[in-house]
Amino acid sequence: MEPNGSGSDASRQVQVRFVTRPPPPLRVPPASMAVPSHLTRFGLSDIVNLLLKNSDPDHENQPFDFLIDGELVRMQLDEFLIAKGISAEKVLELEYVKAVAPRKQEDPRPHDDWVSAVDGLIQGCYDTFVRIWKSGDVSECTHVLEGHTGAITSAKFIDIRGVENEQNFHLVTGSKDRLLRLWKCDAAKRRGDPIRVGAYKILAGHTSSVQSVSVNPSREMICSGSWDCSIKLWDVKESEEDGDGNTISLKKRKVNSKTKESEDARLEVIDVLNLMNI
Predict the structure, then answer these.
(1) N or C: which end of the chain has fewer CB within 10 A?
(2) What is the pTM of this model?
């Protein structure tokens, strides 16, 4: 590590050759040179910028990252060589590239309580609200859906044929308030602050918390599961009309024995799965 035999840190030098893939004007002369071994990428950047300015007086200083054998140098040169077992007696090829500033970490989006349901850009929360977010360089809340009186447990987009378009979308939510609500949002209306949206239909029928919701786009139906030990199917074909939704009941078969009752129970489950295309 000490070609000149000196024990001083300031006098320790290594022979390097700066190379890069970008074409001129970011390419320095290929000749090797001696640099202090204690330099970090910041000191090496100063040298590269000085060489570039000698070739082009209009060059503006910029930070660079440096690689040796394809690995970024994130410490002093001498420390890196020792850590990687690389000899300092040979000419080192230092590849330099434009340093990319790390992307600024966005602040977490605040909620007043736990986020309990997510479907794409929909977020349901224990604060009883559902929020819809717009993706991009900076995420922002575009809609706040209000009306539930209990924690949100499930939220899903639904496809209502004939009314869906890029600016118009529907969704369904389930809550600990034992209700499902249908919502219609118009993205084109947003100007500034998030739009407050109320449900256009309430689906009542469960006697305990609604825990999960599944949507069957092809049949325009919704399936909900609840802590009341029931699964309900909801017909939302007429979802644009106000009022309560219609549940789909399965006709119960007559049974003559416990065995027959068990078989019919399995058949009813199969009927539900077929209706939902599962």
Answers:
(1) C
(2) 0.49
